[in-house]
Amino acid sequence: MYLETLEKLDIELTNTCNLKCPYCLKVKPSLKEFVKNFQELDYEVLTSFITKLKKYKLKEVILMGSLSEPTLYPKFLDLIRFLKGLNLTIHISSNANTHNEEWWKELATLLTCKDSIIFSVDGSTQQIYKKYRIGGDLEKVKKHFQAFCSVQKENYSEVYLQTIDFPWYKCDEEYEKIKELFDPNKEYKFQRSYIKNYYPEKESGKLAKTEVFFRKNIESKIKSGTSLKPDCYVLKNKNLYMTYLGDIIPCGVVYEKYLFGSERKEGKIPNIYEINIDSSETFSQDFILKFNSFFKEHFTQTIFKNYECLRRCTKLYSNMFYIRNPKEEDT
Ligand SMILES: C[S@@+](CC[C@H](N)C(=O)[O-])C[C@H]1O[C@@H](n2cnc3c(N)ncnc32)[C@H](O)[C@@H]1O
Ligand code: SF4
């Protein structure tokens, strides 16, 4: 993965969220210091960086993040206008508790059929919803969802209602009830998400078990198969991740490693504040070299040599990252 080949960028716009979902990375005690005071990516630096990337292969921007709510970025709608001006495809995930109906209508007018948005709804009643979406208001989500959909005519973007597969409800049944509540006459896409259990592991025997299962499964495959090759989501999709500090890292799975790690202290991680926003048409040679050597080292060392990345990934994203047998693929 090199700067020139990057097609998708997942951006964490701020370090802030309005909710306190108990298994979100945001509530992890080790991150307390990082989410304490509001921080955001500088709009000018960010847009200059994206403009330069667009001159290479950038096609899609994901506004989701790992510990924040993207719509809380103060210049969120300006950013959407800017990205659409560059003809980039946008994917958003939101808890939709923010702003008001007018704001959500405005967002809907800016998005096109190439774009997509996930409304995270984990329950068909406030009682069920608040089990995970602590601080959230299901009625508000419903209103914002309906406002958004009301202006989406022919050219509408893909709208997903997402429910996470929690052990306290049957995901498919809950989704049917949510659909009934939100808009029984329309067909929206349903996205089932699998649980990532960051915290608190001790209290969640049931959740942890899924991860233990996937981890054991993958560990035994790694041990037994020298010919097994990791099939990395990031490499496959030419996809990288930007933190709210402007660091560009491989993906959200390694978030903590790079947030706390020695690479950051030693200044090894490429950071968008290193680019010169005023001048050059493209990136400086120094920036390109740093960027490319950082990712070359990461992918060769952590994926292909010692599987560190694979192990982390299977702990958190067991559904995205698996290993394939190149022999099977060849036949
Ligand atoms: C960390 S959130 C950030 C975006 C936004 N705040 C939201 O909740 O939609 C990114 C995605 O992870 C999902 N998510 C949150 N907690 C999760 C968990 N424990 N397991 C799996 N997915 C989770 C959210 O629904 C969302 O689609
Ligand atoms: S709304 Fe999203 S970012 Fe906020 S706590 Fe919940 S999962 Fe985390």
Walk me through what this model shows:
This protein has 331 residues and is α/β, with parallel strands linked by helices. The chain has one domain: TIM Barrel (Alpha-Beta Barrel), CATH 3.20.20. Helix content is 40%, strand content 13%. The protein is built from 13 helices and 10 strands. It has an 8-stranded mixed sheet. The chain has a two-stranded antiparallel ribbon with strand order 7-10. Strand 3, helix 3 and strand 4 form a beta-alpha-beta unit. The longest helix has 21 residues, at 285-305. It is globular and about 55 Å long. It starts with 7 loop residues before the first strand and ends with a helix. Bound molecules: S-adenosylmethionine and iron/sulfur cluster. The site of S-adenosylmethionine has 18 residues, from strand 3, strand 4 and strand 5.
Annotation field: number of helices: 13
Any ligands, ions or cofactors bound here, and which? Answer: S-adenosylmethionine, iron/sulfur cluster
Largest sheet: 8 strands, mixed
- Low-confidence residue ranges: 199-207, 318-331
Side-by-side strand order of the widest sheet? 6-5-4-3-2-1-8-9
Can you give me a brief rundown of this structure?
The protein is an alpha/beta fold. It has helices at 43-54, 76-85, 101-110, 126-132, 138-150, 171-182, 205-224, 233-237, 255-260, 262-265, 285-305, 308-316, 326-330; strands at 8-11, 60-63, 89-94, 116-120, 158-164, 189-193, 229-231, 239-242, 248-249, 322-324. It is globular and about 55 Å long.
